[in-house]
Amino acid sequence: MLQTRAIAPHLTRHNEVGKPRRPVGDPVAPLKEYTRFIPIPYVPPNQYSVSLDILDPDAAQGARDEGRLVFHCVGDIGGINGTATEEALATAMEDQIKLASPQSLPRFHYVLGDVIYYNGQERLYKQEFYEPYQYYPALIFAIPGNHDGDTRVHWGDPRDTEPSLYGFFNNFCAPAPEHVTPYRMSMTQPYCYWTLHAPFVTIIGLYSNVEGSLDARGRSEQQAYLEQQLSTAPADAKVLIAVHHPPYSLDGAHGGTPEILIAIDRAIEASGRLPNAVLSGHVHNYQRFTRTLEGKQIPYIVAGAGGYANDARSMHKMQRKLLNVQLPFQTTLSDVVLNNFQQDEPGFLRITADPNSLLLEYFIVRFSDDSVELFDQVAV
Question: Are 287 and 338 a contacting pair, CB within 8 Å?
Answer without folding.
Answer: yes
